[in-house]
Structures
1.
Amino acid sequence: MKYRRLTLEELSHFEKEFINFLAINGISPEVWEEIKNENSDRINNLLDQFSDLVFEKVLQNIRFLEHRTPKDLKVFKCMPDRIKLIGIIVDRQSQLDLTQQAWQQQILETLQQGNGNEVRIYAAEKSYKTTREEELFNMVSSGCFVVDESLFQSLESLHSS
């Protein structure tokens, strides 16, 4: 198994796709019932294969990820051959909290007031060490969320100015 098995709740969202998966593998509803009653190893194998297919498809469609704590924000642009990071780190003594709704305005005000040592915007880029999808799976498993490109673009313009 490349990723992890989908939970029962997650599987319930893919019922149609799972039925198609079984059909493609030559398993009719009757045969599936027999397998469920008699062959747990085969069930596990089919569920593992299906889970990997679902994760692979989902991960291929990820373009941007975000990881946020009160003092650290990282936004990743997930390209085919490399990943680019734009981040903000806030001094621990600062009152700024990147999990609050008005954080962007507070950052702009802090930078305009010349308190650049309180906030640091940085960027980095690297190639994937394993496959793109495996790295993105690990990132999502460690707390990253899929986001759209708007935050990345905003931070990129702040970083380049």
2.
Amino acid sequence: MIIIGRCSIIQAQDLNFSQYYNAPLLVNPANTGFNPDYDYRVGGNYRNQWASVGIPYKTMSIWLDTKLFKDRFENGWMGIGGSIIKDVAGSGNLQSTGGYLSVAYHQMIGNNSLLSAGLSGGLVAKRVDYTKLSFDNQWNGQFFDVSIPPNEPFAYSQTGYFDLQAGLNYALFASDNAYFNIGASVMHVNRPSESFFAPSVSNSQLNMRFTYFANASIKILDEWILNPNIYISKMGNAKEVLLGLNARRDLGGNGNQQMIWGLYYRSNDAAIPLIGFQKNDIAITINYDATISTLKNLNGSRGAYELSIVKHGLFSNSSGRSVKCPSVSF
């Protein structure tokens, strides 16, 4: 939520990526350490949006997580991780930077399902450059004159708050050829206040953001793994629905080299093709959000592009995973 102008409010969702499954800690803290085949993951994401209709919106993140105590719990383990996300938006150079730490516990239920619960907390800082903005009071009848005082009740050019998130995941390892996962999370559990105005003018609290997703991996033949996904997020009056699938094709017969293709659809907004390549434990994926909403009349359907890089790995002294989850792999 960004508050601009005299007592007016624009509502929107938090920062997010089309490749939400490649930014797991930003989606749900229960994803922390949810990596049964490996000891750790590290990833980065970059999104450039709406460059064709003005100053682009740029969103960047880095994240990592690892497993803990995998040999100390009966059929379970803990995960710990951290993430940093930064966004620069619009002509006012509105910058948002957040740093989060997250922890989760994962417990096998029987031989083929897993229940996970996680929490994360972090600090968010935002700032804006008012000198780069124009306000209605600065209209002199012909143009916006920045020498005229804006007479807006801004009290700060910077603001910050502590943010708390919680989430649950359930995974079903149906067989070596089929895996299913559903999750739900709540962000802004503590309803932090975010405002550039004095408390006497506005002390607006962020709405809680509810996020749901369902993923699957299904191996067909010996060379293909299909990964259908659906993602739903709701914050206040804003709602996002993203659905589609990506497919991985084994190129070498041992899974060390894979091509990735996919197509997604964001409801009333964009068609999203993607392509990627994985070699050993590093995957690089690029997608393009082609606008299909009425905004396409302004941007010529040029919406956003996004890049993700994810690496999985084992520690040199690791003897492999202690909890044996069936996995869908080449």
